Amino acid sequence: MNNKIQAIRGMNDLLPKDSSLWLSVERIISNLFISYGFKNIRTPIVEKTDTFCRAIGEATDIVEKEMYSWKESNGESLSLRPEGTAGCVRAMIEHNLPREGIQKVFYQGAMFRHERPQKGRYRQFHQVGVEVFGADNAKIDAELMAMTHALWQSLGLKNLTLQVNTLGSSEARANYRSVLVDYFTKSKDQLDEDSLRRLSTNPLRILDSKNKDMQGLINRAPKLMDYLDDESSQHFDEFKNYLEYLNIPYQINTRLVRGLDYYNRTVFEWTTNDLGAQGTICAGGRYDGLVEKMGGKPTPAVGFAIGLERLVLLLEEQKISLSGSPLSIYLMALGDKAQLKSMQIAHDLRASLPGAILYNDITLGSFKSQFKKADKADADYALILGEEELSNNQISVKPLKGQSSQQTMSLDEAINYFKDSTNV
Ligand code: ATP
Ligand code: MG
Q1: What residues of the chain score a pLDDT lower than 50?
Q2: Which ligand has its closest atom nearest to the C-alpha of 111?
Q3: Which pTM was predicted?
Q4: How far is the CA of 382 from the centre of ligand 1 (A)?
Q5: How far is the CA of 276 from the centre of ligand 2 (A)?
Q6: Residues 39, 45, 48, CA angle at the centre, nearest 5°?
Q7: How many angstroms is it from 401 CA to the middle of ligand 1?
C-alpha cells in the first residue's frame, strides 16, 4: 500500500514560487472593485445544503452531482460552498442589508465542486465575485461590464470576448420553455442522455450542450429573443446602448443560458479561445427573483464571478507577469554582537524602506555561506555587518548584480542609497 501523504485529487497547493502572481492579481482586483464602490463581504465556506439547493436550483449540474455534502449528527445536511452567490443572498436576508440601500459587495475565496479535474477545472477552485442588491436598471449591468473590461485592461489581457444574452422575465421564460419542450420533443431521437433528462427538468440547459452531434438541432431551435416581454426587451436594449456608448465590444449569443437556475434578463460571459475547452473566465447575470425566493423582501440583483485559476492560466498563456520585482537586500552579520545589532538594523531598514524585501540572515554561518544564501535568494544587495563595521558604527553595501563596487557608510546613508536606487 502506498502511504505517501498526498493532497486530494483536483485540490491543488499554491506553492511559494507561484504565489506572487496570485497575490498581485488579487490585489489589483480588490483595488479596482473598491474603486467602483464595492465593499468586501466574507461568508462561511459551509452552509446548509438547502441554502444552495434553493438558490442554485435542483435541476442544475451543481446541485445534481457536484456538491460536497454530508450529514451532521443531528441529521442536518451541510455542504461546502460550490459558488458564492447563495451565501451572499443568505447574508443579505439574514442581516436585512438591502433595507439600508443598494448593496455593492465583492467576495473572494475557495469554492468546491465534485467535477472531473482537468486544465482549468478543479474540485477546489477560487472565485472573485461581485453582487449588487437593490438596483434593477440596465446602468448597473453595464457598469459591471465596464468594470470587468477595465480589469482585463489593467491586467494587460487580450483575446477576451464579451457574450451577452437576455433571458427575459420569468413569465417569458416559462412561455419559451414550453415552446422549446415542444421543439425538442419532436426530435427526441436526436437528444443525448443528458438532454433527454433536461427536457423534463431544465430544457433551457439543452441549448448549453457541448455535444457536437446536437449542434444543428440546437441552432435551429426557437430563440428566446422572439418570446421576450416588452420590459425585458427594453432593458436589454438599454444595456446594449450603454455598452456601445462605452465602446465595449460584445456578441449576442442567444444560446447563452448559464448553468444556474436563478438568472433572468441580462446574462453574460467573458470567454477566450486561448485556454481550450475551459474558456469562460467570468460569468454572471441578473437574478431579480432570488432574494424573494430565498425568503427576503423582493430585491433585484445582478452579479458575476471570475474563475481565478483560469484568469491566472490566461495571464501565463499570454506571458504577462505582474509581480514586478521589489528591491531585495540580504543583511549578513558575523559575531554575536553583530548578530544582535543586525536585529535593530533590520527593523530600521524595514521601517524606512516599505515595499523592499529584507532578508535578515538566519543561517549564522561564515560570510562565504551567507553570500551563497544571498545569491540563492536572488538579492540585489548584500548589507554587511562585520567587526570593523560594528566598531565604526557603519555598514557595507555590496551590489550583487551589475558592476558597482562595495561601499562602506552609515546606516542613514545606506537607507538613502537604497531610496535613490531605481528599484524602490
Ligand atoms: P463551466 O461551464 O465551465 O462549468 P460554470 O457555468 O459551472 O462553468 P459558474 O458557476 O458560472 O461556472 O462559475 C463562474 C466561473 O468560475 C466560471 O466561468 C469559471 O471561470 C470558474 N469555474 C467554475 N467551475 C470551475 C472549476 N471546477 N474549476 C475552476 N474554475 C471554475
Ligand atoms: Mg460547471
Answers
A1: 423-424
A2: 1
A3: 0.90
A4: 46
A5: 15
A6: 115
A7: 44
